Amino acid sequence: MQPACIMRTPGLLRRSSRFLFRSLRRTLDNGPAAVPGATNGQEVPSRALDHVSRPTSTGAGPEELEGKSVADLITERQLLAAFEQLRHLETRLVAEKASRTFEQDPTGFARRAMDVCLHYDALASEIDAIVNETLGPDGVDAAALAELAGVVHGDFLRTPRHWRQHWEDAVRRSAQERVRSAGPGEAPGAAEGGSALAQVLTELGSLVRRDLQKVQLEVHPVYAAAGFPAWETYLRAFHGAVAQRLQELAHNARGCEQLYVLLDWAANVYGSPDFLGAQNLALSSEPLPPLLAPDVWARLESEYTNFLETKIASCFDGILQLEQSRWADAEAPDVLQGRYHTPLSFDVHMLVAEHVKAAGAISKELEATTLQICARALGLFLPRFEKAFLESKAVNEPHLGANINACEELRTGLLARFPGSFKELEKPLVAATCDFQNRLLRGLQGDVQPLFRVLCTKAWLTQDVLQPLMDKVVAFAGHLERVASPWAQETLQEVHRYVVREYLAHVLGRRERFRGVERLTGSQKMGQDAQAIGNTFQGLGSEATWLGQAIPCVADILGETYKDDIQRHLETLIRSYPDIRRDHVLAILSLRRLGRRRNQRLLQHAQELLRAVVKAGGPRAAGGHVLFEEIEVPTSVDVLITCI
């Protein structure tokens, strides 16, 4: 009568029988056959096999194993003893077959052969069960692991059975099942953002870390005691399972947050040297294959940068909206460390630093790409910001000063930290700063321009008409104290140059001339004004000392009583301001009556000096400063009559 296990599994009987007959045919020519183990889940074979009482390496004595069937040994996980008995039964069965014992009873041979096969299958299934239970909540006792290690590692095993390969496959399947159990079965959707994916990866990392710690600290020592290392097999099995799970998550990852979470986990969490959480947990001596295939990694980085470009542009839109809301609310800028302050520079610095730092944690290539994206987005943002501000109602000295400071902070800060990536932004930032500076100057010029009209008039001779103008300059300079250097100094010098230039423009452009006492009084008045202008700007800190001789030279020509000394004053003026032109000399000479011949001689001498300046390289080569070049003087009939 056939064993119950065979009766319940006819398909298995047919498959095992076919293999057995092929094996036995090979045995006749090549010696004892090896029958491979079956897959997991097969039924326990018959207990009707002969019992073999022989010592084993399990530690159990012969008297303990006496009377136990192979099935009992397998059930009790005395795997080495079970295998020894199966080996003996198989060898004896093959010998009996060779001696023609079963010529009259082929069915009996097939039944006994099938029992051997099914017991081998049961042994393989028990190996699978032990591997699956090893990392489970209850675990497996050390004795069972030692038995398993002995079977898998034993030198006496016949190679065709591939017990080690079977064990490695079982470890790999166990790792895959455990890794797949971490987090939801499906990858989070794009609508769930990066938090849901981060939770999945956190659970995955915790499970893998916990399992590998158990392998290293509890499982591996048992295998190693049997002479069979198991650590690298488990490590590679889990690595492969994590890689497969990550490939699935990467396939469905969408949006900047999910893509970054995935890349960051692969590079910085799983890829961290202390991922396993203990210094004594050694990784494989050989490098593991990439967690993500190079083409998958490249695709994720590419998609991430595409989303990042849109996100950073959106962040700059948000920065602009915040600035516009402050302008609309007429909020005055803060004063921080003595400087007008707007959050613009801080917001941009934080935006760039955060994204660059995050990208750099993943790879240098992604960091470089992110820098390019930030630089390009900032380059597009600057003209939009400038246009929006200059068209707003918030254009005043404090806001202009705050924006000049912000641009200077961006220029120096970003270029110092990322010189290669933001180098091309230096010119746009300087250009924006200059535009804000020019708007600042135009505001002052609009305020003080009407005050110049009273110069060189009858009222000017007897009144201090310059004081209101200088009061506005002093008030304006108070704002410059809260503007960053060098822009504050440069703007102050430009105001200094503007005041001197406009003063001379009104003096040279007037149509009426002073005569007699009025001319001398006018000369003295110009000298006093020049002193007041010089003292004021010196007190404000202007370093444009080169402007100091312009008004006094003209005043000396106007008030000089010894006409031969006029040439000396004219020479001083031309040498100090080589950008002066013939028209300016004519206008200066027309301020008083010198006679046609003297005027022609002075004009000719002035032209010789000017030609020498041109020959030497021009006004800018001679001094580099510009003053008279920007003064337009009308060529009136009075000037022509006086000088020609």
Automatic annotation (TrEMBL):
GO terms for biological process: exocytosis. GO terms for cellular component: exocyst. Residues 30-65 are annotated as: Disordered. Keywords: Phosphoprotein. Signal peptide: none annotated. Belongs to the SEC6 family. This is Exocyst complex component 3-like protein 4. The gene is EXOC3L4.
